[in-house]
Amino acid sequence: MKKTVDVSIPLGPMHPVWKEPCRLKCETIGERVVKAEMELGYMKKGIERIMKGRPWQEVMFLAERVCGICSVIHNMVFIEAMEKMSDIEVPDRAAYLRVVANELDRIASHLIANFSYCYTIEHETLGMYLLNTRETVMDLLEKLTGARVTCSYMVPGGVRFDLLDEDKTDMVIALDKVESEIRRYMQMFDEGPLIALRSVGVGTLTSEQALEGHAVGPTARASGIEYDVRSNHPTYQKLNFHPIVRTGGDNHARIMIRFDEVLQSVSLIKAAITTLPQGLIRGGGVMKKGSIVYAGEAPRGELTYHIKADSFGRIQEIYIQTPSIMNIEACVHYMIPESYSIADVSATYISADPCIACTER
Amino acid sequence: MTSVSAYIKQMLTKDWAHNFLNAKTAPLESPSYFRGTPHLTGKECTHCFQCMMICPSPGAIEVMKNDENGGWAPVIHDGHCIRCGLCVEICPELVLEAGRVHAMNVHDETYMQFTFHIQVNPVTCMGCGNCSVACPVNKEIDPSLAAKGTSSSDDVIMRVDKGLMTVLHEDKCTGCKTCEEQCPTGSIMVARVLEPLQLVES
To answer: Is A191 in CB contact (< 8 Å) with chain B?
Structure first.
């Protein structure tokens, strides 16, 4: 009998398809991965330490720079936490506009996550199509806020700019285009036989394992856990938001649920634009002393800010809990040992949409 | 098969043929609504330094005296600027403009406002009076301010009273933080509290 040799294969820190550096150590028996381990620490910025002692108008921009892909939600959660701490009311129009900016950012984030997966399984055509659609969404975000990535759109008590009527019609036309394109790409992904070979049944995460690994966001929802922080948000409740759930739990389900959520975001933006209330966009109000724990739903899952501020709204202590660290945990312990071969490891890892910049801050 | 038929269908459209024959890269210019680095509008600067105070990026904007005509004007260092547009929003004299930030502020009637608060830690304060002497507003109100920081005028922002620094008129503070820089023990702190506001139609 041929002797089986156990080999520890390291992937990373630099890998052609990974967006950010991290090291994944895979213990293998033959082609099969039996155990995996993640090594982080290549991207530490120390951004929480820089935030300390600064007022909100400086921390707001630092919070945006925690993550380059989901920057709007960091801004939104930080500002909403500070508002809740200081009892500042947000006008209805501003709350709706926040949802518009946030959902546009979510579409952009989900599309780049799906691009990454398509690129990893070497379906570059579909990947490039998705990036093309993402450009349309980024242009809409730029039109609304003035910047493509670091929008800095939300301020305490409201938003910075109003949505003009001519931009509103442009936005609806562009979103219709995005919706029709995404439906086509969804069909391509869902029915493509070669995509199915690389994704259906690979890296399965059952709902029990998702609970045990503390998976959040689309990763958990693809395994049948109906949990989304947006359903607790008052503005989303007004827009009749219900989380989407899939029960597959494999790579295919995780990518498809992101496509589903893109379509859901498009419909949420359209609903927000058509029912946009008239009125003020800034209510005013100054920051007060206090401490708070506040969570919001980032594109990757639950994002929590623990904040303590002094009497003039300067940050005394801050701790940011980002969703990717939980998803990486679930991915490394449960998904990767379920993938068939070492070739599927990077695809499985990318399907959990890890964001190392968020994780290490 | 659906993908193949989708490709063929796409090729038969008029737009596809037009784009294929007239293939052209998009022009590399940022749109008018892009919030770039601020530029000067030509209006006169009153050197209130509020743009410097609000700027979240260190060293991105400096208000400097112009040698040629003696006027003041903000200078923006492009490498440091993070294109946030807050200096445009805070400027009371409309000296700066970035993208359509100011145009949108006029459209929405929005603005931002600073209030300044002085905090003295009585435990570490030794009552040396450096802050009171250094304060440019104090100097203007009471030119005969003593070197120990005591003053007979009740209109000054702060003065040394019975060996302790007391703040009398917080509302006169311009937020320059000179007192903070001069304090040997770090006992005085100036908080710049920013409030985003919108004009309410009554």
So the answer is: yes
Tell me the C-alpha distance between A8 and A22, whole Å: 16
ipTM comes to 0.82
Q: Taking CA atoms, what residue in A is nearest to B196? A: A284
Say whether domain B117-190 belongs to CATH 2.40.50.140.
Answer: no
C-alpha–C-alpha distance, residues A24 and A38, integer Å: 5
Nearest CA in chain B to A193: B1
Residue A162 predicted with pLDDT over 90: no
Q: Please answer yes or no on whether B198 and A281 come within 8 Å at the CB atom.
A: yes
Nearest to B35 among A60, A146, A156 (CB): A146
Give the sheet arrangement for strand A23-29, strand by strand: A6-11, A23-29, A32-39
Judge whether B39-108 and B117-190 match in fold. Answer: yes
In chain A, what are the domains?
46-360 (1.10.645.10)
Which neighbouring-strand residues pair with A323?
none
Q: What are the phi and psi torsion angles at B121 (to 5°)?
A: -90, 110
Q: What is the pLDDT of residue A4?
A: 54
How far apart are alpha carbons A196 and A251 in whole angstroms? 9
A 70-109 residues inside an 8 A Cβ radius of B: none
Q: Do A192 and B3 touch (CB under 8 A)?
A: yes
Instruction: Check A286 against B193: CB less than 8 A apart.
Output: yes
Interchain CB contact of B197 with A (< 8 Å): yes
How far apart are the C-alpha atoms of A101 and A69, rounded to whole Å? 13
Q: Give the pTM.
A: 0.88
Per-residue model confidence as pLDDT tens digits over A216-265: 889 999 988 888 888 988 999 998 888 999 888 888 999 999 999 999 99
Closest CA to A161 of A146, A150, A174, A176: A146
- The residue ranges of chain B whose pLDDT is under 70 are 1, 201-202
pLDDT averaged over every residue in chain A: 87
Integer Cα distance of A5 and A25 in angstroms:
16
Question: How would residue A115 be classed by pLDDT, with cut points 50, 70 and 90?
Answer: very high
Chosen CATH of B39-108 out of 3.30.70.20, 3.40.190.10, 3.40.1280.10, 3.20.20.210: 3.30.70.20
